[in-house]
Structure formats: structure tokens, C-alpha cells
Design brief:
Elements (H helix, E strand, L loop, with lengths): L1 H10 L1 H30 L3 H4 L5 E4 L16 H6 L4 E15 L7 E8 L14 H6 L5 E5 L3 H4 L6 E4 L2 E9 L8 E6 H7 L6 E6 L5 H8 L9 E4 H15 L2 H30 L1 H9 L4 H36 L8 H22 L14
Parallel strand pairs: 3-7, 4-6
Antiparallel strand pairs: 1-8, 1-9, 2-3, 2-5, 2-8, 4-7, 5-6
Helix pairs in contact: 1-12, 2-10, 2-12, 2-13, 10-13, 12-13
Length: 372
């Protein structure tokens, strides 16, 4: 029966095209939605993922990088005293109001003050050494190229953050953030803008397997005031989880994903049911020759699996083109192998669900219709 399903699919392929396209475009919707979720919520952790630090130190209970509060700078000495830690540097966080010219409307920005030396860990995955050196210039700042219109400036222009003058020296890609515009400056510039103290300390360890022991060893030193240590991986996930779950945005995305799956199943099942109904006489002939209804159901399910496979190929090609296009226009997207596998599983599940719904069309495969 499986061989019959395959031969029918290839011989009468034109009848199955609508179902294949329905499955394919449902897959495109799922993939693009997943990519946008990863890109948008992943930007909440761009500060961690774009840096090479292994350990972050911040105020206890900090839910997201953008919600940090000042900590005691003396904790830096505690970190430097640990023989497993090879490098420590402070990170300054400033929530500011950006104005391209005095008297114009403002834009809310997140300014990160970093170590601008060539060996700095913060943003070293996206900030090349030559641009890092430019931050050593007085009042120099770097912004994302996609935000340049929002900020109303071009490279070389002056602007004002909280009424204090800064100078845009360069733009980079990959710095877009959730909820505001990211701006990078040196720690000296950040302190000039707002000297509210150190927000984070980041550290690099000599051996990756020592991250957890170091965190455990350096926690709970009450003499340094309130602070908490996280591994970079944990802090990145904590930031993304806050925006996905605690803000309610994640629930909305999951609800939308369920709607996409439901709509895709309905459209694909209708297309597949139409194919089954149009083949009612063939199924009735098989039934009259002794093929039971269960065998015919297996034929429909096998056809649904084949349709799911072809739909997955169509959806994969279209999704790849859309993802590349989105990257060229700096749209925040992301994709991981695990999420890709989940999308493939959902598309195949969608095809099988459609096949189960389409089985209702077999009710017309009564041998009696051959007498009409």
C-alpha cells in the first residue's frame, strides 16, 4: 500500500501540488516565526553573547542585562584574587535620552561603557580592534548601522545624551536591542555621561570546567555588599527568559504559533481531502478488490507523509531565501540546529494531522459508487 501511495503521488503529482504548497507555506510561517523570536528575544542577550567573558557579576536578582543596578567596585579585587580568573573588567550601563540636535525630540538609548583596549572582552565578537581603538577618543560613541536613521545622525556627527555632547565615530552591525537603541562608548565616556557606578563586572577563567567552582567559591562574601555571579550562558538565558515569559510576550508568540499550526492543518487537510475525494472511485475499486479500510487509511497517511516531505523541501528553500534577505536588511533573526529540527518535526506533524483529517474522505470509497 505504501508503494501504491508513492506511485499515485508521482503519477498524479499535479493533484497533490495544492497540498504540498499548503504544507510548504505553513512551514515557512513556522520557520520565520521561530527565526524572528530567536532574533528579537536573542537581542536581549546580545551584550552577553557578543562578549567573550565567562562570568558576569551584577546586582542580586537581576532579571535582564538591561535591568542592572550598581554594585560595589571592590568586588573586582575579590575576583582578581582568585587564581583561576585571568581577566576582569567593569561594564557601565547608562539609560539615556539621545538628541541629534539641541531642542529636538529624544530617543531612549542603552549606552554600554566598556574597556576600549584591544584585549577588552565586552562586545569583542562584533567590535573589531580598530573600532575599539576609536572609542578611546574623547566622547566617542558607536551605534548600530540599522539605528542610524532612528538616531538622526551619520558617522562624524555630534549628538547629545542627557544634554552632554558625544561624537559618532563609527557604526557596526549586530547591535540592535529589544526595547531601545544600543550605543557603545568607552568606560571613561560612560562615566562622564553618568557616574552612577559600576553596573557589572565580567571575568574570564583559565579553564572552562572551572566556571561553576569559581562561581560557588566567590559567592556570598557579605563584606562586599550585595552581588551575584552567573555564568555567561545562564545570564544570557535569564535575560531572554525575562522578555519571553515574564513580560507576556512569549505567551503571545506561543499562541500565534498554535494559530499558525491550526490554520496550516486546516488548509492542508482540505487540500488533501479534496485529493482523496477526487480519487474516491479508485479507492472504491481497491476496496472492492479486498483492500480493507485500514489499508486505505495507510495509503492516505503515506501520501500525507510524502506531501509533508515535499512541502518541507519547498518551505525550506523559501525560508532560506527569506532568512538571507532579512539578514541583508538587518532584520533581527536567528536560527539554531535544535529549532530547525523542531520546525521540521512540526511540519511533518502538520502533514500527518492533515492526513488523519483527510481520512474522512474515505467514507466516499464505497464499492457501491462503482455501480452508478
Amino acid at each position: 500500500m505504501v508503494a501504491l501511495a508513492r506511485k499515485t503521488l508521482f503519477r498524479e503529482w499535479s493533484r497533490f501540488v495544492p497540498a504540498i504548497l499548503a504544507i510548504g507555506f505553513a512551514g515557512v510561517l513556522l520557520v520565520m516565526q521561530a527565526a524572528l523570536v530567536l532574533g528579537i528575544f536573542g537581542s536581549a542577550a546580545i551584550y552577553v553573547n557578543a562578549s567573550s567573558a565567562d562570568i558576569w557579576v551584577g546586582y542580586p536578582g537581576t532579571q535582564s542585562v538591561s535591568l542592572g543596578r550598581s554594585i560595589n567596585r571592590d568586588i573586582e579585587m575579590l575576583l582578581r584574587m582568585d587564581t583561576e580568573i585571568s581577566q576582569v573588567e567593569p561594564v557601565f550601563w547608562v539609560d539615556g535620552d539621545w538628541r541629534a540636535a539641541q531642542g529636538q525630540g529624544g530617543v531612549s538609548i542603552y549606552l554600554t561603557g566598556i574597556n576600549a583596549q584591544s584585549n577588552g572582552m565586552m562586545f569583542d565578537h562584533i567590535l573589531p580592534p580598530d573600532l575599539r581603538q576609536r572609542l578611546l577618543e574623547p566622547n566617542a560613541v558607536i551605534v548600530d548601522r540599522a539605528d542610524i536613521d532612528t538616531l538622526g545622525v551619520v558617522v562624524g556627527d555630534d549628538a547629545w545624551i542627557d544634554g552632554k555632547k558625544v561624537h559618532v565615530v563609527a557604526t557596526i552591525a549586530g547591535l540592535r536591542a529589544l526595547g531601545g537603541v544600543n550605543v557603545i562608548a568607552s568606560e571613561q565616556t560612560a562615566q562622564m555621561l553618568n557616574n552612577s557606578g559600576t553596573t557589572y563586572l565580567i571575568a574570564r577563567v583559565l579553564h572552562q570546567d572551572q566556571i561553576a567552582p569559581v562561581i560557588q567559591r566567590l559567592s556570598d562574601h557579605a563584606t562586599f555588599g550585595p552581588y551575584e555571579l552567573w555564568s555567561a550562558e545562564d545570564f544570557a538565558w535569564r535575560s531572554q527568559r525575562y522578555w519571553m515569559l515574564d513580560t507576556g510576550a512569549g505567551a503571545a508568540v506561543l499562541f500565534l504559533a498554535a494559530i499558525v499550526f491550526l490554520v496550516g492543518a486546516v488548509i492542508a487537510s482540505q487540500a488533501l481531502t479534496a485529493v482523496v475525494v477526487s480519487s474516491a472511485r479508485e479507492y472504491a475499486t481497491l476496496n472492492a478488490l479486498g483492500a480493507g479500510i485500514n489499508a486505505l487509511r495507510r495509503v492516505v497517511l503515506a501520501q500525507a507523509a510524502w506531501i509533508g516531505g515535499f512541502g518541507m523541501i519547498v518551505g525550506g528553500v523559501i525560508s532560506a531565501v527569506l532568512l538571507v534577505t532579512a539578514q541583508q536588511f538587518d532584520v533581527p533573526i536567528g536560527m539554531t540546529p535544535l529549532v530547525a529540527v523542531v520546525c521540521i518535526g512540526l511540519v511533518l506533524g502538520l502533514a500527518l494531522v492533515s492526513g488523519l483529517i483527510a481520512m474522512s474522505g474515505l467514507l466516499r470509497a464505497d464499492p457501491a459508487i462503482l455501480m452508478r
